Amino acid sequence: MGCKEITLKFPTDYSENQLRNKIEKELNIKEFSWQIKRKSLDARKKNRVHWQILVSVSSEHLKGVVSPVPSTLNIPYKKTKEKVIVVGSGPAGFFSAFVLQKAGFDTTLIERGSEVGKRAEGIRKFEETGEFDPINNYAFGEGGAGTFSDGKLTSRSKHILLEREFIISSYIDAGAPESIKYMAYPHLGSDNLKKIIEVLRKQFLDIGGKLLFETFLEDIKIKDGKVCEAITTNGVLEADKFVVASGNSAYETYRMLIDRGIKFRTKNCAIGCRIEHPQEIINKAQWGKKRLRGVKAAEYRLTSSGNGELPVYTFCMCPGGSIIPSAAYSDTNIVNGMSLYDRNGKFSNAACVAGINLNSLNGREMSPVEALDWMECLEKKFYDHTGSFKAPFCTIQNFIEQKEPKGTFETSYPLGLEPAALWDLLPAEVSNSISAGLKDFSKKIKGFNTGIILGLESKSSAPIQVLREKDGFCAGIENLYVVGEGSGWSGGIISSAADGIKAAMHIIKKDLK
Q: 98 and 46 share a domain?
């Protein structure tokens, strides 16, 4: 049996028969099997938009090296009495708990919010009434903030291949489409994520894991350089190891950890707003036509040096998606983006942010607590401006020219818009840089300046980062791991889940010694 990899070009609406026929013609063989290894859209020439597909072909009639069996994450099993408490059921927390339970540990996963069905109902009521639910919202609850998002599975990290393969395989086993294995920019969609998370929860429980919803970590007790107890709203929990994956939004958890002596440092982050366009404008600009058979919706990824002050870029682009109110607290106003798997909504949206260094921005060295206070103050400023969860907005052209917005605009944002001098709500250096970036983007994408810009995007990256020892545990506390987006060491589903897995593997290997 021989194997050969070939790269083929296909029209966007190609069929499986066309793929088979082209392989047959290219390799001059009749009997073979194949597997798609990579699939990406090439839209550089609008009159020749096509799929570029890397295919691995196996056949008795081929000469060549048989494809090696891909390496997989080796989770050694050893029944142990060691107890682990994992805080937070987002990608980092869940996959950390999942791996630990598979390895034979007594694992309890606690989550401050509710299970995903109850959480979805809370979010529905919030969007209908504007009344914030502190337990069930877009920031907290089963699956973390990523549950109600686009479900992007891209990651630029090169050192997490085994973890990534395990995560992708776990999602597919739980009902995700096979295409996430090979798409250049794979995504799950919020509709799929809710179902997948329920299946993963059942798998975790079936192998003996424990899960406590509506259980908030209030404090930890440290003795002799180790955490010995987690104080929660459902009582005191004792364990041998602790993994905290509370997420980027859990400011009170950050502050509690800092108060208990856990060391953090201030790091670079990004802030900005959300931009929104009718999806057809983006399709036309990227493809030369409003629709393209075989492709869901056009995307973009834009960067700009702006005015030279701060780098500006788009982030978390959600084609055919919606802008959502993702506040974690009742007196803050933050927006984020989401889309369903089919990406067939009327609008597209993306974060447009400027990379910042808080020390430079404020002209002095800021402690981690001061960094949190600064970010929280900005999030409250946006809430105070409207006195509600309405999103302050203007047109992109308004922002560029710094002119007061006029008129009304259609939007996917469910809680309404309020015209505002949006640039005045952000630090001047950030506003000036974003304005220059928007002007630059308007030259790159036709019609870009006709869109709107709204709300505060402040969760693209954490403003602080926990200090770690080489084995991943918190500096000076040998049985505590802080992982995921809240640790400041990862961002997004894949890198956060991988960070949680790495902590779990450190614990497992330490126990085996």
A: no
Give the whole-angstrom CA distance, residue 114 versus residue 489: 26
By CB neighbour count within 10 A (0-12 exposed, 13-18 middle, 19+ buried), where does 216 fall? buried
pLDDT score of 306: 73
Last residue of a domain, one of 44, 59, 74: 59
Both 277 and 425 in one domain: the answer is: yes
**What helix, strand, coil percent values describe the chain, rounded to 5?**
35, 25, 40
Q: What is the number of domains present in the chain?
A: 3
Residues 250 and 396 reside in one and the same domain: no
Structure tokens at 127: 């969007």
Ranges in the chain, pLDDT < 50: none
| Closest-CA residue to 348 (of 322, 386, 367) | 322
Token reading at 118: 């109850």
Structure confidence by residue, pLDDT tens digits, 208-242: 999 999 999 999 999 999 999 999 999 999 999 99
- 140 and 47 together in one domain: no
pLDDT on residue 467: 98
Displacement of CA 361 from its chain's centroid (Å): 26
The answer to the question of residue 258 being in a domain is yes
pLDDT of residue 376: 97
* Sequence letter at residue 77: Y
Q: In angstroms, rounded to a whole number, what is the distance separating the alpha carbons of residues 252 and 463?
A: 14
Domain presence at residue 375:
no
Closest of 437, 455, 447 to residue 277, by C-alpha: 447
Neighbours of 331 (CB within 10 A): 11
374 located within any domain:
no
Same domain (yes/no): 93, 238: yes
pLDDT for res 310: 95
The one-letter amino acid at 452 = I
Nearest partner of 257 among 93, 470, 477, 83, judged by Cα: 477
Domain assignment of residue 25, given as a range: 2-59
**Burial zone of 74 (CB within 10 Å; 0-12 exposed, 13-18 middle, 19+ buried):** exposed
Q: If you search the block for the tokens 């600009």, which residue do you land on?
A: 285
Q: Which of 296, 317, 313 is nearest to 304 (CA)?
A: 313
Phi-psi region of 447 (alpha: psi -120 to 50; beta: other; left: phi over 0): left
pLDDT at 149: 85
- Which pLDDT does position 68 carry in this prediction? 63
Q: Per the domain annotation, does 22 fall within a domain?
A: yes
| Tokens standing for residue 225 | 């350089």
The half-sphere exposure of 194 on its side-chain side, counting CA atoms within 13 A, is 17
**CATH code of the domain in which 151 resides:** 3.50.50.60
Question: Is 318 within 8 Å of 150 (Cβ atoms)?
Answer: yes
User: Are both 238 and 290 inside the same structural domain?
Assistant: no
Residue 318, pLDDT score: 96
